[in-house]
Design goal:
By secondary structure, this protein is α/β, with parallel strands linked by helices. The protein is built from ten helices and 15 strands. Helix 5 links the parallel strand 5 and strand 6. The two termini are about 25 Å apart.
Length: about 350
């Protein structure tokens, strides 16, 4: 049985706790938050300890795994402390505010030989898993391009939330939400080679971060990805299409206001008539968090690397930084060839 400490008792910490408690192989022993009352609200119903001292939580000798659910600014401190204490770590995305912060975390994981995972739960969504199965099975032939629209419209007082504060978050909509899509580009299409982007602030009065970002990526094999992530998308949307020689897959939905997960598999006709489409509907409940946690537990047992491993974690941040650089320069930016980090099971 794995003993787990959760650092950060906000909405994601609560979600992670619920998933872990449903697992047969793990139990939450400690919940830490700067607001001990909030920590206690999560910990008390399951008989876990609550504390405002996250350092003590991650050093607890009964804890094997630390799940970091704090605002991004505090990811590095909590994750580094946990790794040095000999714990495996699942840290919410992004791993850090910058690639340099992430590189220090990755190096520490290697030194202490602990598993390090970033929470890229979108890889585990039912429609993404089905798309991966179809693509790898040759259902759409060689892949040509990807298009994605992803966003929501914010909410009253959004300017005061931590995710829109550059010092705390590290970036705007591209880093906060778009990083999931950049990770899916690598997972479903190909490895990026160059990138161009335009980051803009259209509506929200954020002093330092963007509320929209338009990105184009060219992969090492000349595929193209077009991405628009937005906090001025007044009706929530997650739509991702991948086209190939023999057809396409169109993923939509997520959960909540995004609607249930769906997938359309279109099969190109030799006559170039209307493609034959097959539809896949998935339960409204988003099970990606359960699938992600189960895989992480299995990799702890096996010693293999999960998805969201150090290579995935660092590469996603490198792509975000390349996009921001492109927006500043208003030019294409070449992405350095990817280095597969030690221990990463790709």
């Amino acid at each position: 049985m794995l003993g787990v400490a959760i650092v950060g008792a906000g909405n994601i910490g609560k979600l992670r706790l619920q998933v872990i408690q449903r697992s047969a192989d793990s139990r939450v022993l400690v919940v830490a938050d700067v607001d001990e009352v909030r920590a206690a609200a999560l910990a008390a119903p399951i008989g876990a300890q609550a504390t405002s001292d996250w350092c003590a939580a991650v050093r607890n000798p009964q804890v094997n795994v630390v799940v970091v659910c704090t605002p991004t600014k505090f990811h590095a401190g909590a994750t580094l402390e946990a790794l040095k204490a000999g714990k495996h770590v699942l840290c919410e995305k992004p791993l850090a505010r910058t690639a340099s912060e992430a590189a220090e975390i990755v190096e520490t994981a290697e030194i202490h030989q602990r598993l390090l995972k970033t929470g890229f739960n979108y890889r585990y969504m039912d429609n993404v898993r089905k798309a991966k199965e179809l693509i790898e099975g040759g259902a759409i032939g060689p892949r040509y391009f990807l298009r994605c629209r992803y966003g929501h419209g914010g909410r009253p007082g959004y300017e005061k939330e931590w995710c829109t504060d550059l010092d705390i978050s590290g970036g705007g909509v591209l880093l906060e939400q778009g990083i999931h899509i950049l990770d899916l580009v690598r997972y479903l299409l190909g490895e990026p080679a160059r990138i161009t982007a335009s980051a803009s602030r259209f509506f929200w009065n954020f002093p330092d971060v963007e509320d929209n970002c338009f990105v184009e990526i060219q992969t090492t094999t000349s595929q193209t990805a077009q991405i628009h992530v937005s906090w001025t998308q007044w009706v929530n949307i997650l739509s991702l299409e991948i086209f190939g020689r023999d057809g396409y897959v169109h993923l939509s939905g997520r959960d909540g206001h995004y609607g249930p997960q769906r997938l359309v598999w279109g099969k190109r006709q030799a006559s170039h008539g209307r493609p034959v489409e097959e539809f896949f509907e998935f339960p409204a409940q988003n099970t990606s968090w359960e699938h992600e946690w189960m895989e992480f537990v299995e990799t702890i047992k096996s010693g293999k690397q999960p998805m969201g491993n150090p290579t995935d974690s660092l590469r996603a941040l490198e792509l975000v930084e390349a996009a921001y650089e492109s927006s500043r320069r208003q030019a294409w930016v070449e992405v350095a060839p990817m280095t597969v980090l030690a221990g990463s099971n790709r």
